[in-house]
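hi! just following up on the protien thing from before. the input was this:
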Amino acid sequence: MKKERGIITLLTDFGTEDGYVAAMKGVILSINPSAVIIDISHQIPPQDVIAGAFVLSQAVPFFPKSTIHLAVVDPGVGGKRRPVLIQTNRYFFVGPDNGIFSIALQNERIRRKIHLTNKDYFLSHISPTFHGRDIFSPVAAYLSLGIDPAVLGKKIKEIKDLGFKKPYLKGRKITGEIIHIDRFGNLITNIDEGLLKNIFKNRRFEVEVCDNIIKRFVPAYSYAKKDEIISLIGSSGLLEIAIKEKNASTEMGVAKGERVEVRLRDKAF
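and the predicted 3d structure came back as:
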């Protein structure tokens, strides 16, 4: 007896002005009218696989076991990149093999990786520019009906990894980078709370990015004064840099990929 997996999440860079997302949902519901479809985001910057990977990773852990995560940020559509299914101990991931699942998979135990090749589970006509509709949506829908993933294609050993750099240490200085800028302009780094606590313990630290030195570390945005530059641990568990009621990226001239240094200050708390 098949065990249905009813929840399918969608993440794309398609926006909502065109009919692309609706077409994907139509395909899913035509195969499984009972599917529960949750939109994570359709506002990923066009072709920005790294942004898609980060946003996806922030939502994935909060979904029930057996959720199917369908992500399409796919600048290589129609080319040599493979359509894949990754099954972990908790979830299924369906989309292009371009690293979009890299961050989300860091906290998952992978059970199998499958190159999607069985056209019986695709739409009859496959557009070279819209695999989200013609391959990934039907595969996700059949998965939600409880189909055995093994019938969908061939097992593979490797999938693409974006190769995110980890912060590195020298003495009591952490060097990392800005890996994401959210819609408020907050600068999110790859430096996590655990590393900060381990290195600095109960001592004050300062953060530098693009010649801006931030000495004020707060527990939440509400602790800052208007227009004040601050650092804090965001909901992702990562160090963020923000300006109260302003866009920090614009005001500070900071882009994704910029170097960030966190170093010890002289006085203890």
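The mean pLDDT is 94.
The domain at 7-155 is CATH 3.40.50.10790 (Rossmann fold).
cheers
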